[in-house]
Amino acid sequence: xxxxxxxxxxxxxxxxxxxxxxxxLTAEGTRHLLSGTALxxxxxxxxxxxxxxxxxVATAMFTAEAGTLRADIEVVLHDLHRRGLIEWCHDxxxxxxxxxxxxxxxxSLGDAVLLLALETGEMTELSxxxxxxxxxxxxxxxxxxxxxxxxxxxxxxxxxxxxDIGPLLDELCRRGVLAVEQH
Amino acid sequence: xxxDAEHLATGVAAWGLDGDRDHWPADPLPPAVWDHVLSLVDExxxxxxxxxxxxxxxxxxxxxxxxxxxxxxxxxxxGALALERKALDVVAHLDAEGIDHRILKGxxxxxxxxxxxxxxxxxxxxxxxxxxxxxxAIATLVATGGExxxxxxxPGFDRRFSKGSCVVDADGIEVDVHRTFAMGPFGVxxxxxxxxxxxxxxxxxxxPLVALQAEHRLxxxxxxAVLGSWPPRLLTLRDIAQLLRRPGMDLELVRTTAERxxxxxxxxxxxxxxxxxxxxxxxxxxxxxMRSFRPSARQARGLDAHLSPDKGRSxxxxxxxxxLAMHGVRDRAAFARALAIPxxxxxxxxxxxxxDRWRAALHSLLDRGRR
Lengths: 183, 371
Description:
The complex is a heterodimer of chains A (183) and B (371). Chain A is an alpha+beta fold. Chain A has helices at residues 36-44, 51-61, 66-82, 91-94, 129-136, 143-154, 158-174, and strands at 8-9, 14-18, 21-25, 31-33, 86-87, 97-100, 104-109, 112-117, 123-127, 178-181. A three-stranded antiparallel beta sheet of chain A has the order 2-3-4, with no helix packed on it. In chain A, helix 2 crosses helix 3. The longest helix of chain A has 17 residues, at 66-82. Chain B is of the alpha+beta class and 371 residues long. Chain B has helices at residues 3-14, 31-43, 47-55, 63-96, 106-112, 134-143, 157-160, 185-188, 192-196, 214-227, 234-244, 251-260, 264-278, 286-292, 297-307, 311-325, 329-340, 344-347, 354-370, and strands at 102-104, 125-128, 147-148, 164-168, 174-178, 200-204, 207-211. Chain B has a five-stranded mixed beta sheet. In chain B, strand 6 and strand 7 (207-211) form a beta hairpin. In chain B, helix 3 (47-55) crosses helix 4 (63-96), helix 12 packs across helix 13 (264-278) and helix 15 (297-307) runs antiparallel to helix 16 (311-325). Chain B starts with a helix and ends with a helix. Chain A binds chain B through residues 102-110, 112, 114, 116, 118, 121, 123, 125, and chain B through 51, 55, 70, 73-74, 77-78, 80-82, 84-85, 88, 116-118, 204-207.
């Protein structure tokens, strides 16, 4: 994620309590029911809080690994933007993008993919979801982007998928088959 | 080897071709036959085609057989990736020394001529270098950790007369450094400059490589099929079939080049063998040309030397025919001297003495005379 990125709530949107639930009502009159975490993040979108600062707040609030929280926040921001609740001109472009390391040799083996990192000579075999992630990364993408895409394939929530693939992406980076593009 | 198993292995080599034959039964093979076929598939490096055929449902196999093939494929592809990494290393070393090169055979055709490189298994790295840079290429590979497998008869012999030489690295990976396509008369009459006038670039691991142009790759496969070992390896025949069906292949250029190299007999025999064995589709006008082709007396003698089933005895024949095909007294004299009185380091691994070596050669030539 671009550490300088500062998402902003759209003009006219406000929190409206309905009983015990909190919703966000847009200027156009559309009501959005958000989870407590999503609502907290939306409130942090004041145009001055950066992604990293949001991550710091979340780390203080929740007991979860930074990698998982980072993926969660990305997914939530992605969702808020999709709903039109925040403006973030460079949201997608600014998020860290995972890409295939170019100096790799590979073979597709039906339901598996065999990779050899040229630098280290380390062989990696991908199977199952890892193959799907690898296929998606024919084009660089963010955790949120991958999670959203896989969610439609597997019928899971993007948040759940993104949380699951975070460690996988980290491991593939460690093995030298993926790299992260930071902005 | 049973004829059943051979027939089935041939069916694997033919899998996916337009003229695919009905080699396989509708049900999975019984264990004894399966084991035999799998051993042939392994020997002929056909595991990629077998795996693809099974996945497509064309070659029936039970769950255990499928698992066995997938496991074999993983091992073969892990080997292929290691070889490609080695090929990139070799190219980097040659580039650093300003030595021209072309990637040959498996590491090139797998990517350029097959729809999926996993179909094409290979077991070593093959690279072509210019004759005048041959010694430098070998020295470079030796300096970077390789070891020359066989000494040359005399210094400079490989650069002038050999098909090439093999360098083995510390991991046991073989790098075949080629100067020409074949030993013997057909290697002598090739116009090597043709190979350097063009090439086809491709990328491996994000790095650029150069292979021979497609027409030369087809000719190389033909030379390898006929002059490498006889009967030809099924995988080499499959290479020929793949190249024949390659879009844009200029078959007229293939034929005229073979003629100029005095290797049209090799082309005709190789293509005919691919068609007869695995049902390779031979487009016109090559098919018509092949059917009417008759080799010259000299080509027939050259083929005879190569198609002998006795490899040990065929070497002196090939050398003799190569000698006859050479132009220039100096070349002939150097060739004859190197083979007649080679360095001791060359004789030692093969024969107990030079006399022993001469005796074997004489037997071979006398045998040939009797035939």
